Each structure stands twice: as structure tokens, then as C-alpha cells.
Predict the structure.
Amino acid sequence: MALITSILEQLLNGLRIGSVYALIALGYTMVYGIAKMINFAHGDIIMVGAYALYVYVSLLKLPPVLAVILTIITCSVIGITIEKVAYKPLRKAQPLAVLITAIGVSYLLQNLSLLIFKATPIPFGSIIKVPSVKLAGLNISGLTIVTLVVTVAVMVGLTLFINRTRMGHAMLAVSEDKGAAELMGINVNRTISVTFAIGSALAAVAGILYISQYETLLPTLGALPGIKAFVAAVLGGIGSIPGAMFGGIILGIIESMSKAYISTQLSDAIVFSVLVVVLLVKPSGILGKLKAEKV
Amino acid sequence: MKKYGKQILYMVIAVGAYAAVMLLVNMGLLSRQMTSLIIPVCMNIILAVSLCLVVGFLGELSLGHAAFMSIGAYSGALVLKSGLPVVVSLPLAVLVGGCCAAVLGFVVGIPVLRLKGDYLAIVTLAFGEIIKSVFNAATPITGGAGGMKKIPAVTTYKNFTFVYILMLLVILLVSYLVNSRHGRAICAIRDNYIAAETIGIKVSRFKTMAFVISAFMAGMGGVIYAGNIGILKPVNFDYNTSIEILVMVVLGGMGNITGSIIAALLLTVLPEMLRGLSNYRMLVYAVVLIAMMLFNNSPMKRILVEKKNMRQAAKIQ
């Protein structure tokens, strides 16, 4: 019985961290689907979100709800700015050039926050204050409940947005064939900007949930979850939205299980080995489609 | 005579640089800070030139160069600590370090056979993180996060000749390789891998070859690092180290060995000179990366290149 309880507890932990990964992975996958690039700086938007929340809540003393909304807006604006300044001029450039630029942007964000907020970790208590629930001998923390509810809500909202609205359809069309979409009168540049805005907004939500779990601010806090969420996106099949959700949850569970039952130190190595194995066995991911390359 | 002119020039530069450094050191004209920089400069040149082979000539982005360096550093350090006389242990350590890194390069090379572009970059990054956490976890051998200590300081400026020769060998090897048949095959893969495949170039074989050679040289660079710094910590071989080497390659102009060498020299010496601005160093690196890429793809660059071509065409006529 004790073993089952502990496994269930780890499963819940995995779900909690996995939902954060899923939210980040959605941003990777959407941007990849539309701009065909890996936005390396996406992980650092999480960091920006966490620091923005800290500034709004602790320094400006704003009420939490307003702070959360402002954080999301801040991240979206930064996401669009990055796209306009750094990625848009390179839309026709080699993939290598785009990738190096994205790494440069990621580095820039990290070092800017290092200069502004210094390298010392800043303790920052969770803004989510929900009492925990006891269920059949299991103690479910309030944070877990909030995380899961927020993630499910965001995912449902995103699916509805993509399938029901004009903008969502435009996104699907652009990701299918940019040239044809343009001929149909879709404003490709605006669609790409909206994608970056949504991706960054999701990263902001993920950043808020992440910082509520870890409660310490560091300029590099976004790097590791960013890479792991990328692993999740690849695991689920990059470019596929259900794949990103699925991949994130699976990865979270793998991570918390290996932390609990194998080794804390090696859990990162295990997560990355998953990526290597997936790419070797099924490079298109679990739910991804393999596209034949045209010559 | 004209055919050999360039090579003679390079030889004069190589010998001249060696003589200048030796003279300055022996006459005691260099400050301690400067003498301590001699070996890191050589090491960074080795690392930058080896990464240049993969990024510049093969056209694939490797974000795990520090991992190859670390495996070379740790295995080389074990040899250095074995107590053999330096004359034996140093060349042996360099060889062992290089070989261990090359083996890892081969292991990483297997996914390389199937991946390219973004995925490849991420896999090399993942490998780097895996290696780092393994070194962190394998405390009995590597000393874990506390670090591997008391490595004999064999590659200080007193052993400059050995390191310098090693550096020259690396530069020579890469420059001869890229001008050889194999090197042209590697460049062909970069320019258009489908076209390369159709004319019978074995893409996966040449990719693996470039990777293994690059890893071998990075491993040797790692041994020099170990012998110079005396203590190895997994933290020293993280993502940032890989990026620093990448910045050297990008700043030097991708696919330009001379450029990489000059960039490595500058980016090792300048930060030491500008200690006061050390907080801004990484910020400047980031800006350099973005600015270089934007400039390379800007209309301005295209106009400059066209002008240069016109001038050359006029000269021929």
C-alpha cells in the first residue's frame, strides 16, 4: 500500500512538472510548425515571465491577478519584438544562421537579466495560495491542482482557438504551405507574429507555474526547462499540438519517476537519453508526421 | 615560387610567433597575467579550429564541443596523475584524451547519420548535458561536483613548445583536410547534401569522419586545459563553454580557419585586458552572434559581395 501511495504521489509530481513542460512545448511546436525554426530563446521567455512576475508582485506590489495579466502581456510583447528584430530578416536565410541567431537571443536575454537582477538567487514565494486536498490517503497540494486546472484550461482554449477562429485557421494554413496561404490572402507576417505572441504567453504562464514550484529566481532558470520542453515537443512529434501536450506529460512523469526511484543526479541524463533514443528510433516523434523531402 | 608563396608566408608567421613569444617570456617582458594567457590562447585556437571543421565546413551546428573537451580533459588528467615522467605522460595523455573524445565523437556520430540541422544541434546539446551529469555522478573517478584535484601542472608556459607544436599540427591537419578530396566532399555536403549524395559522396561517412576528427582535437584541447588549470569541475564544461567556442568560429567567419585563429586569440586576450567590463562580456558575445548573422544575411552584405565580384571581374579583364 505504501508503495502504491508513493508511486501515485510521484505520478502527481510528474503530472505537475509535466504540465509545465507541456505548456512550454506548445510554444516550441507552434513556432516550429509555422516559422520552421527552433526558437532557442523560448526557454528564456519563461525566465522573463518569472522575473516579470517578481517585479510586479514584490517590487510594485500589484495584486496577483493584475500581475499575472501584466506578466503575460510583457512576455508576448517581448516575443513579438524578438521575432521582428532577430528572426524576420532571416526568414530566407540558411537554417544554421537562424539557429545561431536564436542562440544569440537566448544568451542575450540571460545576460541582460544577469546584469539587471545580478547572479544571486532571489527567493520568491509562490503567489498561488490554495489549500491542499486529501484524497484517499493522498495529499494533493494546492499548487498541483492549480497547475493541472490551468494547463487543461489553456489546452482546451488553444485547441478551440486553432480550430474555431479565423486566426487559428490562418495558422494551420501557414504551417501547411506558406506560399499558398499568402496567395489566399492570409497575412503571413501577422500570423507569425500572433504565433510568437501566443507561444510567449504560454511560456509566461509556464514561467509563473514554474516559479511557484521552485520559488527561487535565477537568470538561467529558463534554460533547463526550456531544453526539456523541447525534448517533450520532439518526443510528441514537433509541429503537432496534441503531441506537445502528450510529450510534456510523459516527460514529466519519466523525470519524477527517475528522480524518485533511480537517481536524482542522473535524472537529467535519463531525460536527455529519452530524446536521443526517440530521435534514433522514430525521428518524427510519437504523434508527428514524417514529411518526404522534395528535391 | 608563387604557388608556395602563401605557404612560406604562413611558415614565417608560425616561426615568428613562436620566436616572439619565447623571446618575450625569456626576457621577462611579459607580466604574469600575460604569461598565464599563452597556453589558453593555444588551447582556444585548437578548440576553435576543430569546431570550425564541423560548423564551418560540414555546416552542422555542434553545441556539445565542451563535452568532447571534458572527456579528453578527464581521461588525460587520469594519465597525467599516474606518476609517469612528464616526457612520457604528457604526449600519452594528449593521445589518450584525444582518442577517448574521438570514441565519444563516434558515438555521437551515430545519430548524426540520421539527423541534420536543428535536431542535430539539440542532440549534441543533450549529449553535452548527459556527459556533464555522468561526470557529476561518477564521484569515485571524477571527484563529482567538487572536482578532480591535484592534476600536475604540465602544460604551463614552460612547456609552450609542446603545446605550440600541437596547435600547429591541428591547424595544419584541418587546413590540409579541407583542401583535400575528403574536405571537398565535406564542403559539398554542406552546400547541398542531396546533390552530394547523387554524385556518390557517402554523406554519413564523411559527416562521422568530420565529427570524429573534430572531437579528437577537442579532446586534445581538453588535456591541455587540464594540465594548465590543475582542477577539473563538470561545471566548467557546460553549455556556455560550447557557446564561447562557437562565438570564436562565428566571429572568425564560418569556414575560415585564419579567421577562427584570430578570433580565438582576440577573444582570449581581450576579456583579460578588459577585466572591468567582465560583466558585459557575455552580453557582447550574444550581440556579436546576432549582429554577425543579421549582417551576413542583410542586403548590405549582398551589395558588398557584388562590388567585390565586379572588381575581381574587372581585374581579370
